């Protein structure tokens, strides 16, 4: 196809774009939602790649580099060791991350107190997707990136997916490609920029900067990168383990149009309910030495729960031909079992709604964030009596095919988690299954309301953002 690049706007940081310094300008770009909608509608042809040719392109990128991941005992970790005083798993540089212990006390649920290993990584990374118009349609620069924890290793990632240690080259590796578009004012026009949480069950108060930036000037695509429309990415989100978690969370932050003028609960009421949920929960957390975490056992190759549930801490050796560093060793968290993550959906007076859960997780910065209706690993609750099983889990597991509006298996963060996968679903229900007035801690919200909340940090959790990305890209219609 013939590709024509068009430039629609100067960088947001350029005062000259709005006239003289000090001149006022519109508070919102009213054209942006329309441009995103047009990109979401373009599903077959891209500037560089047709959707039907993507699988061959990804396979070629897999053949172009050597990738290998091997489990190793802790003693073979290079640069990592257990601190003699605390037993915490630390890197000799003092950077990257540490595996520590956490004690959690909550005020609701069958488990009111527990201890666990957790990842502590105070630095804020950048998850950034670069956008550019070709033939009048926004495209997004996506990367074929290897992550050691992904079962199939290579998945579609953001343009930039880097911790501060990565892009400041603590590891003395190669420069992170395209990072200047996200770190230098004036290199692009910011479309979205928000701090978002990571997995609150495995990270302690971890945030990443989620960014969409429209490029200024030519941006040649490296061989491991390709330009895709939102619609093409939506098509790929229908497949298992293709679009990685970091890309999904950034796509959830896209400021798409809010087409709903009505909702079961007005915005102010919804915010009041959510503030009330944050206020009423008591969550106490305390960092403890990893060597003293109750109920967990350490042997030469793993740290695991005595009951065999939840997850394990393991170690791997990695080779990756297209990464900034070609080889390294590191610890990873490996969950036990496939997760199930789902929004229940209903229409009220023709308006689609999602059943959101004000979810408590020990690693959150605040007490709760809005999560999907269901976010569990079923095997962790199989031993419990029915009264103590998570609400709505059995309803999702028993959903007939005609009620499932979307289903795909997606990997969680492959840089820290090994073979961590969940079935992501939208499941339609009716009044007989879930009433308009659901149990405490749950609230019906529209997709537009969720989209408005995700523009603020620490309101919507990372699992809910995956499902929101499927909506934003047109992978599913409710």
From TrEMBL:
Residues of the dTDP-4-dehydro-6-deoxy-alpha-D-glucopyranose 2,3-dehydratase domain: 52-253, 268-471
Protein name: NDP-hexose 2,3-dehydratase family protein
Pfam families: Hexose_dehydrat (PF03559)
Ranges of compositional bias, category Low complexity: 1-23
Region annotation (Disordered) ranges: 1-32
UniProt superkingdom: Bacteria
């Amino acid at each position: 196809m013939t590709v024509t690049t068009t430039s629609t706007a100067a960088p947001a940081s350029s005062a000259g774009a709005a006239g003289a310094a000090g001149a006022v300008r519109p508070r919102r770009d009213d054209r942006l939602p329309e441009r995103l909608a047009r990109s979401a509608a373009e599903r077959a042809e891209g500037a560089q790649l047709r959707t039907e040719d993507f699988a061959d392109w990804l396979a070629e990128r897999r053949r172009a580099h050597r990738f290998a991941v091997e489990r190793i005992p802790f003693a073979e970790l290079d640069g990592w060791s257990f601190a003699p005083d605390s037993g915490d798993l630390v890197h000799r540089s003092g950077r990257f991350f540490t595996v520590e212990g956490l004690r959690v006390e909550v005020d609701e649920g069958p488990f009111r107190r527990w201890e666990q290993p957790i990842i502590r990584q105070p630095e804020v990374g950048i998850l950034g997707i670069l956008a550019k118009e070709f033939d009048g349609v926004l495209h997004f620069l996506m990367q074929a990136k290897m992550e050691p924890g992904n079962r199939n290793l290579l998945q579609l990632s953001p343009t930039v997916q880097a911790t501060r240690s990565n892009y400041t080259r603590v590891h003395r590796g190669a420069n992170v490609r395209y990072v200047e578009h996200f770190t230098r004012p004036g290199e692009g026009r910011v479309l979205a920029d928000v701090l978002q949480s990571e997995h609150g069950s495995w990270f302690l108060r971890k945030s990443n900067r989620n960014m969409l930036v429209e490029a200024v000037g030519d941006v040649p695509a490296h061989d491991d990168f390709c330009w895709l429309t939102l619609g093409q990415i939506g098509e790929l989100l229908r497949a298992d383990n293709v679009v990685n978690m970091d890309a999904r969370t950034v796509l959830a932050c896209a400021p798409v149009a809010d087409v709903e003028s009505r909702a079961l609960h007005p915005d102010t009421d919804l915010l009041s309910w959510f503030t009330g949920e944050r206020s009423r929960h008591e969550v106490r957390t305390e960092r403890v030495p990893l060597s003293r975490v109750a109920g967990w056992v350490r042997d030469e190759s793993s740290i695991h729960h005595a009951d065999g549930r939840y997850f394990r801490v393991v170690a791997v050796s990695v080779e990756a031909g297209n990464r900034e560093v070609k080889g390294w060793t590191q610890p990873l968290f490996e969950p036990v079992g496939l997760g199930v993550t789902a929004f229940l959906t209903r229409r009220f007076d023709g308006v689609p709604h999602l059943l959101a859960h004000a979810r408590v997780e020990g690693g959150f910065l605040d007490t709760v964030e809005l999560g999907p209706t269901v976010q569990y690993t079923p095997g962790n609750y199989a031993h419990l009596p029915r009264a103590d099983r998570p609400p709505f889990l059995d309803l999702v597991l028993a959903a007939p095919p005609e009620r499932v509006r979307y289903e795909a298996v997606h990997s969680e963060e492959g840089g820290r988690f090994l073979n961590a996968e969940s079935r992501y679903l939208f499941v339609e229900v009716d009044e007989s299954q879930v009433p308009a007035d659901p149990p405490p801690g749950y609230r019906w919200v529209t997709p537009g309301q969720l989209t408005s909340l995700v523009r603020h940090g620490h309101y919507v959790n990372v699992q809910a953002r995956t499902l929101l990305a499927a909506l934003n890209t047109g992978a599913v219609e409710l």
